[in-house]
């Protein structure tokens, strides 16, 4: 394995990942820099090494911040966070999609003065979004899966656990808690 494919898992000072989705990772270069600046502690190492004229250094695979970072109580309103709140599921047909297959749908359409807020926006597949169009839901034959709401950061973190990445290094597994079975 090339050293360029060895990111470090970043844990908060309480040994929990900073985020699950996307998984909190940093490049091996940033990990080493943080170690030398004494911002992090090395918890686990890869077998691969880097060399300077004076030192040989095993690459960090898991690092923990020395200072605790308090998670934001209110997550930012972003397209990705709406999809994560809704578990990447269309709120009309209840099918799961990838992020690039989902769109925003305004329950009260913008043309009817609907606002782009947590409480008025849901994840929708393109087909359902086009079917609903610029109408209110009660003027269609469609049903809403669940009422939209402003999620907490904890809810988004927990939802992120439903989507483990394709690759997890063995040294990371003790620090991640997924709801699905992991495979190499």
Can you offer a commentary on this structure?
By secondary structure, the protein is an alpha+beta fold. It has 2 domains: 3-71 and 162-175, no CATH class; 79-151, DNA Binding (I), subunit A, CATH 1.10.30.50. 17% of the residues lie in helices and 21% in strands. It has helices at residues 28-36, 79-85, 126-132, 153-160; strands at 8-11, 25-26, 40-51, 56-65, 102-106, 121-125. Strands 2-1-4-3 form a 4-stranded mixed β-sheet, with helices on one face. Strand 3 and strand 4 form a beta hairpin. It starts with 7 loop residues before the first strand and ends in a 24-residue tail after the last helix.
Which key phrases capture this entry?
single chain, 184 residues, alpha+beta, DNA Binding (I), subunit A, 2 domains, two-stranded antiparallel ribbon, elongated
């Amino acid at each position: 394995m090339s050293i360029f494919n060895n990111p470090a898992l970043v844990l908060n000072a309480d040994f929990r990942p900073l985020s699950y989705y996307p998984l909190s990772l940093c490049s091996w270069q940033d990990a080493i820099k943080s170690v030398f600046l004494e911002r992090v502690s090395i918890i686990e190492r890869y077998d691969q090494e880097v060399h300077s004229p004076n030192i040989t250094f095993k690459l960090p695979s898991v690092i923990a911040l020395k200072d605790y970072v308090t998670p934001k109580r209110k997550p930012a309103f972003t397209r990705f966070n709406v999809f994560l709140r809704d578990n990447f599921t269309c709120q009309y047909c209840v099918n799961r999609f990838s992020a690039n297959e989902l769109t925003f749908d305004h329950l009260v359409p913008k043309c009817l003065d609907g606002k782009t807020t947590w409480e008025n926006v849901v994840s929708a597949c393109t087909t359902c979004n086009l079917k609903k169009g610029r109408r209110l839901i009660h003027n269609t034959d469609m049903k809403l899966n669940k009422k939209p709401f402003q999620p907490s950061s904890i809810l988004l973190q927990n939802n992120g656990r439903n989507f483990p990445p394709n690759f997890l290094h063995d040294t990371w597994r003790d620090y991640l808690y997924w709801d699905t079975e992991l495979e190499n």
